[in-house]
Amino acid sequence: MPPVESTLGYEQARDELIEVVRSLEAGGTTLEESLALWERGEALAKVCRRWLDGARERLDAALAEER
Predict the structure, then answer these.
(1) pLDDT-based confidence at 2, cuts 50/70/90?
(2) Is a pLDDT exceeding 90 seen at residue 5?
(3) How far is the C-alpha of 63 from the C-alpha of 37, rounded, in Å?
(4) I need a labelling partner for 49 at 20 to 30 A (CA). Which of 3, 5, 31, 58 fits?
């Protein structure tokens, strides 16, 4: 699996995270494969969280300017 890059877009990270979850839920992987998927999912979730946090900050800033 490629490393999670900071340039990965939200939608890309979200879509890959969905695939990771599906793979884990389907089972049929070795312990090592499952651990690698889990780690990838954690990294993708962090990317998504950074994007969402950034969006929240931008919205908060825009709302503060309106006041």
Answers:
(1) low
(2) no
(3) 39
(4) 31
Domain containing residue 21: 10-66
Domain count, the chain: 1
Rg (CA), the chain: 16
The answer to whether 8 and 47 have CB atoms below 8 angstroms apart is yes
What is the arithmetic mean of pLDDT over 14-30? 97
How many helices and strands, by DSSP H and E, does the chain display?
Answer: 2, 0
Domain-located, residue 50: yes
